[in-house]
Amino acid sequence: MLKTFPETLVSQLLAGNRRALARTITAVENEAPESVEILKTLYPYTGRAYTIGITGAPGTGKSCLVTALTQHLRKQNKTVGIIAVDPTSPFTGGAVLGDRFRMRDLSGDSGVFIRSMASRGHLGGLARTTYDVMRVMDAAGFDIIIIETVGAGQNEVEIVKAADTTIVVEAPGLGDDIQAIKAGILEIADILVVNKADSPLVQNTVRALKAMLDLGHRQRLVAHHGQLMAQTDSTGAPEYDFREVPIIQTVAINGQGISTLVEAIDAHRSYLAENGIRQDRQRARLQGELIARLKETLLKNLLDTVPDETFDQLIESLLARQIDPVSAVQSLLNPQRPLS
Amino acid sequence: MLKTFPETLVSQLLAGNRRALARTITAVENEAPESVEILKTLYPYTGRAYTIGITGAPGTGKSCLVTALTQHLRKQNKTVGIIAVDPTSPFTGGAVLGDRFRMRDLSGDSGVFIRSMASRGHLGGLARTTYDVMRVMDAAGFDIIIIETVGAGQNEVEIVKAADTTIVVEAPGLGDDIQAIKAGILEIADILVVNKADSPLVQNTVRALKAMLDLGHRQRLVAHHGQLMAQTDSTGAPEYDFREVPIIQTVAINGQGISTLVEAIDAHRSYLAENGIRQDRQRARLQGELIARLKETLLKNLLDTVPDETFDQLIESLLARQIDPVSAVQSLLNPQRPLS
Question: Which domains does chain A have, with CATH numbers?
Answer without folding.
Answer: 1-44 (no CATH), 46-285 (3.40.50.300), 294-333 (no CATH)
